[in-house]
Amino acid sequence: MTAASTPQTDYFGLTIPFMHFIGLVPESIAPAYARASLPWRADLANSRGDVHGGTLMSVLDFTLSAAARGSADGKEGMATIDMNTSFLSPGTGDLVIEARCLRKGASIAFCEGEVRRADGELVARATATFKIIRRRPGSD
Length: 140
Fold this sequence. Notes:
The protein is α+β, with helices and mostly antiparallel strands. It has a single domain (17-134), classed as Roll (Thiol Ester Dehydrase, Chain A). Helix content is 16%, strand content 44%. The chain has 2 helices and 8 strands; from the N terminus they run E-E-H-E-E-H-E-E-E-E. The strands form 2 sheets. It has a 6-stranded antiparallel sheet.
């Protein structure tokens, strides 16, 4: 099966080719919460064999925005305004990403999340601000 014919993963109601490409596995979504996992792969690693920081930031960005959406109904989208990430230890092995929406207003959502190794060690922590994009029937 070629990459073009590989079925896309459902990312809580969205098709996100880049998350599919890096192998992010969506696990659960609830109001103000989302969880995903990232199985380790050599092609996601940096020169030391740890998951690359850019990959960590990408999966955090998605998972935090999913927590802000809080559902898979497709009525809201999120656009990242700002994200701050701190890297605390190497991302070795399979990783778990958890995110929470701390506050959601009419147009802005504030979220925080973390990446942990399978042994529970904290790998990275992030905070992000998102602009809420309301989808209207018949719009793109």
